[in-house]
Design goal:
This protein has 406 residues and is an alpha/beta fold. The chain folds into two domains: 99 residues, Urease, subunit C, domain 1 (Roll), CATH 2.30.40.10; 291 residues, Alpha-Beta Barrel (TIM Barrel), CATH 3.20.20.140. Helices cover 33% and strands 23% of the residues. Strands 1, 2, 3, 4, 5, 16, 17 and 18 form an eight-stranded mixed β-sheet that branches. The protein has an eight-stranded parallel β-sheet with strand order 6-7-8-9-10-11-12-13, with helices on both faces. Strands 14-15 form a two-stranded antiparallel ribbon. It binds N-(iminomethyl)-L-glutamic acid and zinc ion. The site of N-(iminomethyl)-L-glutamic acid has 13 residues, from helix 2. Its EC number is 3.5.2.7.
Amino acid sequence: MTTLLIDNIGELTTNDDELATAGRLRDAAVLVEGNRIAWVGPAAQAPAADTRFDAAGQALLPGWVDSHTHMVFAGDRTAEFEARMAGESYAAGGINVTVNATRAASDETLEQNLRRLIAEARAGGTTTIETKTGYGLTVADEVRLARIAGRHADAVTFLGAHLVPAEANPADYLDLVTGPMLTAVAPHVSAVDVFCETGAFDEAATRRVLEAASAAGLATRVHGNQLGHGPGVQLAVEYGALSVDHVGFLTEQDIEALAASWTGPTSLPGTVATVLPACDLSTRMPLAPARNLLDAGARIAIASNCNPGTSYTSSMAFCVATAVLQMGLTIHEAVRAATLGGAWALGMHEEGWLDPRGIAQPAVGVICPGARADLQLLAAPSVTHLAYRPGMPLTRAVWRAGIRVV
Ligand SMILES: N=CN[C@@H](CCC(=O)O)C(=O)O
Ligand SMILES: [Zn+2]
């Protein structure tokens, strides 16, 4: 296996507190062997390698782990966005516009759009991408979307419970989504998500979706507390969901439940609170209380929620900058949430998670020996510049599984 030494790194963010104080090293080097990190340490002690890349004193960090996107779709919703900016509120029903466009699109169109979106994300430093189904909402279309997603994404989530489609009866659709649709899509996904919100799925329906998913042996996630306060967060914790996403409207009890999910006596996994800053801005909703969540001891992730309705961007750098400038996080907290936080939310922080092809993968979201060599180099001497110079194209180079992709 060939080796690559990335040398002369001015600031290295590892997310590994044992390897480096507060997860960061100065004047560092990283050795990549094949698809993994082989060594991390001071540049002065770097081992020999087949090739060397001079980082020129700039900042190196893990590639972004974008744990929440909806990238398999057709069409766009510019008119809806314009109406929102003119004062209209976001409503779940807009999803049907994309469902109609997606159903009418060929596999080739959907795949081409997905490739384009993933290429944009990679160009911005994203090396791990989760994406959801949820714009098909028939058995055949949800299977079609899951298959297409599985050819390109690192993780695929079944979101048949996104909305009751316009032509369906709610009770019949719930039977379908927790029965034959789940059975048909399950071989192509690793998790199930449900939009628990007024106008989408209520508490009883959400319970049915989470129970069916667990019975099928799949991990769970919840879109919760996006448009107002609701039971989404409490249900996510109760069922041991890997993450609950949006979390814009939280009570003290919700925050406590999320924090306690990591320390309580239960054998269920802890639930990551995933904040989606670009979505909050694009829907003109209050920003999620990321600061309060961290202060209470909850674990958070930052994700893009790239989709045509509420957040048509895959820029994790924009999300990180917003989390610092407007949500009160430090840059290091925000970077950690957009890398290791995403890995927690996807269950990819440890060796052995299965990609959509069923191949076991090394850990992501961290730079330490054995982890997947997913790295981004900034055209800046420190990660602080991500918030200090918001909107600037600071991605200089990206490696995914040891291969230079940007
Ligand atoms: N809230 C539900 N789903 C997406 C929006 C989908 C859409 O509007 O097309 C979200 O995460 O924001
Ligand atoms: Zn979403």
